[in-house]
Amino acid sequence: MKSYKALIAIDLKLALRNRSVIFFNYLFPLIFFFIFGQAMHAERGAAITMVIAMVLIIGILGNGLMGAGIRAVQEREANILRRYKVTPITPAPLLIASVVTGWILYMPNVILILTLAHFLYGMPWPQSMGSILIFISVAIAGFRAIGLILASVVNSMQESQLIVQLIYLPMLFLSGATFPLSMFPPWLLVITQFVPASYMVTGIQGMLLRHEGLWANRESMLALILTTAVGLFIAYKLFRWEKEEKIRASAKLWLLAVLAPFLLLGAWQIHTRSGIAKTKVLNRQLARGDTYLIRGARIFVGSGKVIENGAVLVRAGKIAEVYEGAGPEPKSVNAEVVEAVGKTILPGLIDVHVHLGAPGGFYTNTSMYDPRKNMLRELAAYLYSGVTTVRSVGDGLDGVLKVRATVDGGEALGAELFSCGPMFTTPGGHGTEYFKDLPPNIRANAEKQSLRLPASVDEARQQVDDLKKRGVDCIKAILDAGAGGRVFNRLDTGLFDAIARQSHADDLPLAVHTGDARDVADAVQAQADSIEHGSFREAIPDALFEQMAKQGTFYDPTLSVGEAFKDFSAGNERLLKRSLVQQVGPSELLQGTEDALSSKDTEAMRADLARYPIDMKVAIENLKRALQHGVLLVTGSDAGNFLVIHGPTVQHEMQLWVQAGIPPSVALQAATFNAARLLRAEKKIGSIQPGNDADLLVVDGNPLEDITATERISLVVFKGERIDRTELFNQR
Known about the structure:
It is built from 26 helices and 20 strands. Helices cover 52% and strands 12% of the residues. Helix 20 (559-570) crosses helix 23 (603-610). It is an alpha/beta fold and 732 residues long. The model has no long low-confidence stretch (mean pLDDT 89).
């Protein structure tokens, strides 16, 4: 032990006398820290975590590959190691001393960088400081070991410098230490999974951004520990005291052995894609960490208030402040400026009634339809259109929950998803007809995922409970028995009441699909949270609207689907020609649907819909009387039905409302604040208030005077990230 302590002390003295060691350990990283910090405007938010990761990785690579590797070769060529040879020690103390010295020299720099980031750029102290320091310590040891084996297999300084650069530069440029991984194409992201330094970048960023601990980075930790052990063992076996002792060229293959843990880890990551997924999540959080001031715009707050000239400060994904007038000087709040003169800022729009599992039309080739990929693309289409939140009311449970997790976690970019899970109906009831023509084995699974058909009160309550445990956001029940040529069995009211009671007991909002006044009466009596569709075939009594207003039941008229059914029955393709629909709809879907409108193959389907009693005048009058009675209104489109293409659904629903005589301000509030209240999410979305998520839609013009202005999109902001709409459909 004395020899270890003595060698560590000697190494430290020699290192501290070496100006290059001081420069590369302290001054060099600080230069990069300030250069990167200024260039990336680290004072504005999450970019500081990227700066820290860059600087620390550059330092760790230099400390290991150059500090250990090249210095060991220098000492051998200067005959320093020859002097140790005559002492009664083995190579072990020299190798361990090198690792410990590297750690002692570099750790003060880590503390210094984190301290400067806190005091100069306002970065909060890391919650997982202990994990960060341990992780960096293991990384230092791992790369010192790589440097030491490198020193063992080269025969000269010239050769060591060449091999160091061959290892150092790829790690520098492919790890995210110099170029953000968000810039990398998918194929290059795959290659980064084999680069040891990339795990340091994602590990450090994960601990800073997501407050991860060591367990979340256990695979990287294990690889670094194995690298340290393997590297030191091989360096010990190949250790040479004198420069005259040459080593065979084949011995250089031992470098592959020390990198083997990362080759195996890379292969595993490609198989699971967890590393790539984590990289995407971190990139997403970095993009959401900016600070900027949108100013000079009209602000529709969401809850009814309008600021004619104001500014919104966005910081770390949240609305930090809302100002009347010009707002503060951007420098005083460390914010970038986004000029929005002549524009209107709205809360992100919300569609409370969509079916992601249905595309809204017909693909030219049915093999193109992949449910999961289509759901993700549809959520991207909503975000492209400024609809930042949607509620699924009847999609396959497993699929929709997986998609929700993918988007919530940040791996994919799309509108926030709330889900009611399967639809509660009865055998032969509305909802079952979508599966009746499927092969028996496929039909059974589809019904299991999308329907609940309780046969008793206890079963109904248990099914609601089970969905609660699965994590659904709401419950949907169907009372509509149809009419005309489309008649269904009606859900027993005793079972429906059990579903409603259990939903309330489980604190899950209850959405009820209704078709006539009787359905609405039963739903209101059960204290449903929202009435979906109301009635397209008969007037809803004033007394029911009064009761809805009294108990706070929301009304979702879904005029869009009524209009679409009429157009589909008539073979009218005008809804497909809307500009935003053309922008977001897959070309194969739009063309296939257009062809279907005039195809003999769909004649029977169109005739069937034509027999269904849909009276838009009745639906509009119900909506207007709901408003007169003070009922809370929300916007839902029933997207996924024929001609209601996922994307700019809320805009068209509001246009139908305004055409019917509803004031634009009422329609806008229904599509923002009211919808958020129905989702029980008004404390984070639906209004432009400090503390809410920064879900914003910036449009040209004034939608309070011209509701079509909501389609003239200037900027979409989602959780603070300014969306590059052109790239939304290029996600991999």
